[in-house]
Amino acid sequence: MSLSETSLVDTKDAPKSAAASRPATVFVDGGSGTTGLGINERLKLQNDVVVKTIADDKRKDPAAKKALMEEVDLVILCLPDDAAKETVALIDSMGDAGPKVLDASTAYRVAPDWAYGFPELAPDQAGKIKAAKKVSNPGCYPTGGIALLRPIVDAGLLPPDYPISVNAVSGYSGGGKSMIASFEDGSAPSFELYGLGFEHKHLPELQLYSNLTRRPIFIPSVGNYRQGMLVSIPLQLDALPGKPSGADLQATLAKRYAGSRHVSAMPLQNEASKGGRLEPEALNETNMLELYVFASDKYHQAVLVARLDNLGKGASGAAVQNMRLMLGMADV
Ligand SMILES: NC(=O)C1=CN([C@@H]2O[C@H](COP(=O)(O)OP(=O)(O)OC[C@H]3O[C@@H](n4cnc5c(N)ncnc54)[C@H](OP(=O)(O)O)[C@@H]3O)[C@@H](O)[C@H]2O)C=CC1
Ligand SMILES: CC(=O)N[C@@H](CCC(=O)OP(=O)(O)O)C(=O)O
């Protein structure tokens, strides 16, 4: 069989089960793409995980993939949506003996029989991910938007039908290999708004997991830098029912994410902070997400901002966090 195996520990006797004393086995389908490479880089640092790889000339061969998937505990899909659906069909055909699956594509993010892979979504979400056979890894922009919105909706500070606008900027790696090539060969513009057709693929998950009943307006943009993103949400505080202050919003986020390893509610930024600036690259190569409230008591206005690495907590970092949960392994 033309399958190869990359082992980061001795795998000769590694059984299929991911019991604590044995290394877990993982196959990254689409491992040479942008998200897949990021996952593989992270997994190289984890000596309790064995990554099984497929020969390059077989990487799109369903029979070879199926044979490999019979040997692993978990498959991570880093593929375009249609290819992800094909691999999921292969896994489904294996019945109960099939591996767990974590999908980085958009294909199953609002599917009711999949768990949404944002462990910080709610207090019980990590447990749902741990118990699930199928987990969808969140989109990069929704990771920031949901992290900001969900706690303040749940706390009753933001009505679920409130008209929300979400603005965002991403580095060009968010568009995968083709967008990276167009920026690096100079054919892409330096900066571009997109999503102006109101149909961006992240809107369903952004609305659903933020607990919003009204569809938000979402205007993403992409800039001429490789990775890192900001997601921002302006709010007229005196138009909200309880007229919350910026401090109320910050306290709600701080309470919700207290003790979280990967999500930080940052100190309130107000007139006294004299800052008023934020750049998108500070968290690159990390699995961290920072949440800011910029607020003006004078004008009763606020802007919520999430900062993350689109390839970290927005993709590969989140995938490895979810993988470890699904395999019953400690967070790193
Ligand atoms: N980039 C990002 O920031 C994020 C991306 N994602 C999602 O992750 C998924 C992958 O995206 P990304 O890594 O950016 O994309 P890339 O275009 O960088 O990589 C996709 C990879 O999938 C491979 N591939 C395509 N079809 C098949 C197939 N049938 N079998 C095996 N491999 C195949 C491609 O190979 P080839 O080029 O030879 O066709 C390529 O290596 C997408 O669904 C994307 O939406 C999620 C979060 C963030
Ligand atoms: C700059 C750019 O093009 N970004 C991508 C989103 C990247 C991402 O996280 O999306 P998925 O996980 O859903 O693929 C886009 O807007 O389609």
Describe the 3D structure:
By secondary structure, this protein is α/β, with parallel strands linked by helices. It folds into 2 domains: 24-137 and 316-327, NAD(P)-binding Rossmann-like Domain (Rossmann fold); 140-308, 2-Layer Sandwich (Dihydrodipicolinate Reductase, domain 2). The chain has 9 helices and 14 strands. It has helices at 34-43, 62-69, 81-93, 125-131, 140-154, 176-184, 203-209, 246-256, 312-326; strands at residues 3-6, 24-29, 49-54, 74-77, 100-103, 115-116, 134-136, 165-171, 191-193, 217-223, 229-236, 263-265, 289-296, 301-308. Strands 1-3-2-4-5-7-6 form a 7-stranded mixed beta sheet, sandwiched between helices. Helix 3 (81-93) links the parallel strand 4 (74-77) and strand 5. It starts with a strand and ends in a 6-residue tail after the last helix. Mean pLDDT is 93; it is low at 1-19. N-acetyl-L-glutamyl 5-phosphate is lined by residues 106, 139-140, 170, 174-175, 179, 201-202, 220, 222, 310, 314-315. N-acetyl-L-glutamyl 5-phosphate (X2W) binds next to strand 10 and helix 9.
The order of strands across the largest sheet is: 1-3-2-4-5-7-6
**Overall morphology:** globular
Please count the beta strands (DSSP E, at least 2 residues each).
14
Low-pLDDT regions: 1-19
CATH architecture of the largest domain: 2-Layer Sandwich
Number of helices: 9
In total, the number of domains comes to 2
Query: What separation lies between the terminal Cα atoms?
Result: 34 Å
- Roughly what is the average pLDDT, rounded to an integer? 93
Structural class: alpha/beta
CATH topology of the largest domain: Dihydrodipicolinate Reductase, domain 2
Question: How much β-strand is present in the residues?
Answer: 15-25%
| Main sheet overview | 7 strands, mixed
Radius of gyration based on Cα positions = 20 Å
Helix content: 25-40%
Q: Could you name the CATH class of the largest domain? A: Alpha Beta
| CATH superfamily grouping of the largest domain | Dihydrodipicolinate Reductase, domain 2
User: What are the bound molecules?
Assistant: NADPH dihydro-nicotinamide-adenine-dinucleotide phosphate, N-acetyl-L-glutamyl 5-phosphate
